[in-house]
Amino acid sequence: MDRNISLTAMSTAAAAQPAGRAAAAPLSTRFAQVLSAEQSRQTSDTLAASSSDSAKPSTPASRVVQTGDTLTGLVKAHYREQGQAIGEAQAYRQALQLAQHNAIDNPDLIQPGQVIQMSALPTLSEARQASASVTPAASQTDKQALASVRPPFRTAAVSADAPARGGQSLLDKTLERAVRKGYLTPAQAPAVTRKVLALSEKYRFQPDDFARLTLMESGGMNPRASNGNCHGIIQFCDGSNRGAAAVGLRDNPRAILGMGLLQQLDLVDAYFEHVGLADSRKPVSLDELYLSVLTPAARSEQRKDVPLQIAGPQARDLHVDGNRQAPITRNSITQGLHALAERIFGRSANNPRRAGMYAAVSTPDSGS
């Protein structure tokens, strides 16, 4: 049937890799060096409250982490409630301080229900004074340390396969694999990570879910993936009213294949805007995210086990029970994307209890 905007799923990477490629160093790094650099900038462990504090609006002394929260988001909310705006770099620094104060070993891994004490955060004027007092040498040291790690933008996830504290996320694993396969260089990986995390915050989806989407569409962050009609990391398809056209490349869709991963992530941003993903008032589930790429019109069907109007057949994993003669449902999409990721990264793909748990977790209101 005709589709307003649709992209075709791919389950394998398009390009064979050269033999003997050296494995990249792990993306995950310890935050100790960053925290140490941050500590050196402070004249004491706590900052005295300014005399004007009594006049500012009261803010919660602690916050309970909700699904979709990030440490930087909590910092921004803290200052916003005081009528103050804070930039990304400053929010990042304060998030690191917040992590240290709350004994959070990995700022990327905060969990729903976790209580975050906010008392470590200074007033915004004090934070700016502290930044202004940093020597050029210390500032350069901080910049180098901060550039070596990814910022704590990971959204809090209720995920059946969430990594243990200190472990790797699926996004990390997918990017490490992409480096090994030559889809990007080790030097590019931190910027790609930051871009994916920024998109996840903007559109309210889980970063690991975006990794699952790209594993299906392009074999995992492969900007050169193509089936002849659809191209790039989420498979922007040819046609006057399809994915490539939605990002301004209707007349030259194959130009996508000449773009690097960061450029294609900018196209992803434009595409998500085009299909209205930012309009969601609640966190975007894995099935909603994937349908926004595959067939946006199918999102109107919210029931989880009802066959969706999607032209096919699509990749086997997307169909009920992996049978291309069977329909595609929201639940089969969720289960199939998890199953593919598990196969690629060595987990069992044949645990129906786990697959059912994935569907329930990714769509918490599925019983309504």
Protein architecture, described:
The protein has 368 residues and is mostly helical. The protein folds into 2 domains: 31-39 and 58-130, Roll (Membrane-bound Lytic Murein Transglycosylase D, Chain A); 170-362. It is built from 13 helices and 4 strands. The chain has helices at 32-40, 71-80, 88-101, 124-132, 136-147, 170-180, 189-203, 207-218, 243-246, 261-274, 286-294, 330-344, 352-362; strands at residues 62-64, 115-117, 230-231, 236-237. The strands form 2 sheets. Strands 1-2 form a two-stranded antiparallel sheet. Strands 3-4 form a two-stranded antiparallel sheet. Strand 3 (230-231) and strand 4 form a beta hairpin. The longest helix has 15 residues, at 189-203. The two termini are 29 Å apart. The model is unreliable at 1-32, 41-56, 133-155, 157-166 and 348-368 (pLDDT under 50).
Keyword list:
368 residues, mainly alpha, Membrane-bound Lytic Murein Transglycosylase D, Chain A, 2 domains, two-stranded antiparallel sheet, two-stranded antiparallel ribbon, 13 helices, 4 strands, 3% strand, globular, disordered N terminus, disordered C terminus
- Poorly predicted tracts of residues: 1-32, 41-56, 133-155, 157-166, 348-368
Q: Determine Rg (CA atoms, Å).
A: 22 Å
Q: Provide the structure class.
A: mainly alpha
The overall average pLDDT, rounded, is 75
Tally of strands: 4
Global outline? globular
Percent helix among the residues? 25-40%
Q: Characterize the largest beta sheet: strand count, sense, and whether it forms a barrel.
A: 2 strands, antiparallel
Helix and strand string, N-terminal first?
Answer: HEHHEHHHHHEEHHHHH
User: Span between N and C termini?
Assistant: 29 Å
Q: How many structural domains does the protein architecture include?
A: 2
DSSP strand content: under 5%
Number of helices in the DSSP assignment? 13
Spatial sequence of strands, sheet with the most strands:
1-2
